[in-house]
Design a protein that fits this description.
This protein is mainly α. Helices cover 82% and strands 0% of the residues. Helix 1 runs antiparallel to helix 2 and helix 1 crosses helix 3. The longest helix is centred in the middle third of the chain and has 23 residues. The two termini are 13 Å apart.
Length: 104
């Protein structure tokens, strides 16, 4: 269950990055609130997950899920390019996360 909580925390990390990006320097309050809520929930869930997962593994997974999520979100919603090489690297990141889970 801790791993699922950690994955959700990683997705929420992407949520606060999108919120900050869309807030346009904190001028659009709904996006600022989205960023604050996502950041808070992400950190709370991360704190819950590290009770059962070593901090080094948890941080790597949290960061990997967040970074991968924001890359995919930016591609689909904000028309940023995502090359085959970048997609391949995201798959390698996902395999690394799966490997950490299997190894622990």
């Amino acid at each position: 269950m801790s791993w699922l909580i950690l994955i959700i925390a990683g997705f929420l990390e992407a949520g606060w990055l999108v919120g900050i990006q869309k807030s346009e320097s904190f001028t659009h309050i709904p996006y600022v609130l989205l960023a604050i809520l996502s950041m808070t929930l992400s950190l709370v869930l991360f704190a819950i997950a590290i009770k059962d997962i070593p901090i080094t593994h948890a941080y790597l997974v949290w960061l990997a899920v967040g970074a991968s999520s924001i890359a995919i979100i930016n591609h689909y919603f904000f028309q940023q390019s995502l090359s085959i090489a970048q997609l391949f690297c995201l798959i390698i990141i996902a395999l690394g996360v799966i490997g950490l889970k299997i190894a622990s």
